[in-house]
Design brief:
The chain is an alpha/beta fold. It has a domain of 111 residues. The strands form 7 sheets. A 7-stranded mixed beta sheet has the order 16-17-15-14-20-21-22. Strands 3-2-1-6-13 form a 5-stranded mixed beta sheet. A two-stranded antiparallel sheet has the order 4-5. The longest helix has 23 residues. The termini are far apart. InterPro entries: ATPase_NBD, FGGY_C, FGGY_Carb_Kinase, FGGY_N.
């Protein structure tokens, strides 16, 4: 579409807006009716560890929303000379799950507890036994039950618990709803009824009946809505929150709010059976759309749903790129100390490409990028760690390859259960996330991890914000009874370029050797957790006399 065509689309509202709250960035993406990106805006933010909980400040949530939208709006005005006054449809996405309880007045009763917290192990274990269905520690119901076990004071006041995407959607539309994908990470989901699992709801209520809370669990969960359905409209109150200039008009339709897992599936066209995707960022998760549910309970494998409500097996690791990013930051400091300021993309590309020159197994080096706990490997908290022996081949190439391998170590443990013990076939694996902005390297590593072909689309860098914009467009522009899979195939990805890389035998064998070292070395990481405690770190440093 040419400049005048884009300008006309903006002024006539032939657009869709996606807003996603990622773990390090809030992003707004405006697309046209052909799913082409018109403009983007973003806001950098970070979580904090407060009172032993990973959280984001509630003020930062609103500030970041406004900044991301404002930056996108400014980009439109600068490039096209028009002010956004209407949008065809809007969608909100955010980090999955977590815990946000509210009272009847809309007051957040405890600070937002994110997916990153490993504080619900007792609750998750008890609920898994009760339901005979895996309940991960980060799921909302695990957080709620752990609060009950801990007898937290806010519980009788609860009117609603929701996720971050549900909260933002509620602010902008007044509707307390959630898309199927994000809802399936709050409470077990039944794809036949396209709602929360009713027998398990009853089991939970029976479990806590002695507490005499003035609510039933079904009543405090947001209503579930499938992809393609309208989930509310922008209100006057929502305009004041989203658009500080208040140029927008009320009544803009919203699609169901979703988690970043669901939007990642959409962004990679991974909603068909036997198709999978891997999302790489602060955390990493792989998702495979199932033909039927897996037969056994594995704490390493979550059962969730696509935005259309179809069953999905998900392996989620809390830690991925944070330690690698920290090391690259150190190398940046070194280059700047030498008077050489490198562009971020240039630095990443140079450093990541060194991994292609490494020994297949990383030269005997070992690292754990555990900034937080990791449920797959049984670590309640984390300590980033790098280890080598005197015999290791310590060079830059092996250093970079080791940190890339380590980023997927915990994920691999879960994926092996899925593919080897449950015989889940993976026909195609799509990858997305910032790692894949550097050509080839990330794909080769992930192909070795999955031992399967890995494809990257030229939309991979857009991520979930683009994915939720596409879901908003699907709601507005789909034909009657047109399935999400058909819409994506025929109207979104029909002209998108894809680059596929098959696993290299040497990379696969090298990663297998690394994983043996990774598993054997977990005791080292546990020892670091045991002896390098926050209390130790806060003590005054030893003074040299």
């Amino acid at each position: 579409m040419n400049q005048s065509g884009v300008k006309q689309a903006i002024t006539q509202g032939e657009t869709s807006l996606g807003i996603e709250f990622g773990s390090t960035r809030i992003k707004a993406v405006l697309i046209d009716n052909n799913s082409k990106t018109i403009a983007t805006g973003s806001y950098e933010w970070e979580n904090q560890l407060e009172n032993d909980f990973w959280t984001y400040n509630q003020v930062d949530i609103i500030t970041g929303l406004q900044a991301a939208y404002s930056n996108m709006k400014f980009a439109v005005e600068s490039k096209y000379g028009v002010t956004i006054r209407t949008i065809g449809s809007i969608g909100v996405s955010a980090m999955m799950h977590g815990y946000m309880p509210f009272d009847r007045t809309g007051e957040l009763l405890v600070p937002f507890r994110t997916w990153r917290n490993n504080t619900t192990s007792v609750a998750a274990s008890e609920l898994t036994d009760l339901f005979q269905y895996n309940i991960p520690e980060r799921w909302s119901i695990a957080h709620l039950y752990q609060a009950i076990l801990d007898d937290e004071k806010h519980l009788p006041r609860i009117h609603l618990i929701t996720t971050l995407s549900g909260y933002i959607h509620w602010l902008l539309t007044g509707k307390q709803v959630l898309g199927a994908g994000d809802a399936s990470g709050m409470f077990p989901f039944d794809e036949t009824t396209q709602d929360y699992n009713k027998p398990m709801l009853n089991q939970f209520d029976s479990l806590i009946t002695s507490k005499n809370y003035p609510w039933k669990v079904k009543d405090i969960l947001p209503k579930t809505i499938m992809a393609g359905e309208q989930a509310g409209t922008l209100t006057n109150a929502g305009i004041k929150i989203l658009d500080r200039s208040q140029n927008l008009q009320p009544g803009i339709p919203f699609c169901p709010p979703e988690g970043d897992a669901g939007t990642g599936m959409v962004a990679t066209n991974s909603v068909r059976k036997h198709v999978g995707n891997i999302s790489v960022g602060t955390s990493v998760f792989a998702m495979i759309v199932l033909e039927q549910k897996i037969s056994n309970i594995h704490q390493e494998i979550d059962l969730v749903a696509t935005p259309s409500g179809n069953p999905v097996a998900m392996v989620h690791a809390n830690n991925c790129s944070s330690d690698l990013d920290a090391w690259l930051g150190l190398f940046r400091e070194f280059s700047e100390a030498l008077g050489q300021k490198l562009d971020s993309n240039e630095l990443f590309e140079v450093m990541l490409e060194k991994a292609l020159d490494a020994d297949p197994d990383g030269g005997g080096l070992l690292s754990y990028g555990y900034f937080s706990g990791e449920n797959i490997t049984g670590l309640e908290s984390g300590r980033p760690l790098f280890v080598r022996s005197p015999e290791s081949n310590f060079n830059l190439a092996n250093f970079m390859r080791t940190h890339l391998f380590s980023a997927f170590g915990a994920l691999k443990i879960g994926m092996d259960l899925l593919t080897k013990e449950e015989d889940v076939a993976i026909h195609t694996m799509f990858a997305h996330g910032g790692l894949f902005k550097t050509p080839v390297v990330g794909q080769k590593i992930v192909a070795a991890v999955m031992n399967a072909p890995v494809s990257v689309m030229n939309t991979a860098g857009e991520g979930g914000a683009w994915g939720i914009a596409v879901l908003a467009s699907y709601m507005k522009n789909k034909e009657r009874d047109e399935a999400l899979e058909e819409f994506l195939d025929q109207k979104v990805f029909n002209e998108i370029e894809t680059q596929e890389i098959h696993p290299d035998r040497f990379d696969v064998e090298g990663f297998k050797a690394f994983m043996e070292r990774y598993k054997n070395g977990l005791a080292i990481e546990q020892t670091a957790v045991d002896y390098l405690t926050p209390t130790n770190l806060k003590e005054d440093p030893v003074k040299i006399q």
